[in-house]
From TrEMBL:
<protein>
    <recommendedName>
        <fullName>PilZ domain-containing protein</fullName>
    </recommendedName>
</protein>
<dbReference type="Pfam" id="PF07238">
    <property type="entry name" value="PilZ"/>
</dbReference>
<dbReference type="InterPro" id="IPR009875">
    <property type="entry name" value="PilZ_domain"/>
</dbReference>
<feature type="domain" description="PilZ">
    <location>
        <begin position="20"/>
        <end position="103"/>
    </location>
</feature>
<dbReference type="GO" id="GO:0035438">
    <property type="term" value="F:cyclic-di-GMP binding"/>
</dbReference>
Amino acid sequence: MPRRATAQTSQQNIIPTGAEKRRHLRYPVQYRLRYTGKIGSRYVRGEGVLVDVSLEGCGIQGSCPVEQGHELTLQIDLPLKKLAVTLNRAVVRWASGGRFGIESS
């Protein structure tokens, strides 16, 4: 009887790309927010939508462009009891068009 070929992959041989680089799962959400910060000599003020969250960060679709490495303050509107959460010192880790990712500590 002929042997069937099987694919075996060692965990050490897998090089993460794209979403596989993430250490934590991201969960889709839809919360309105506002963000402010200083980029160089100008102040940024925008509105947007929190589109996903993880243990260490979040993804945002915003109205005002930001740049990687800049620090923002986020005010997130939660639907329960009309509560707003403020997140200070959130660092932009990537930005592309109106979309950007935030890491918070």
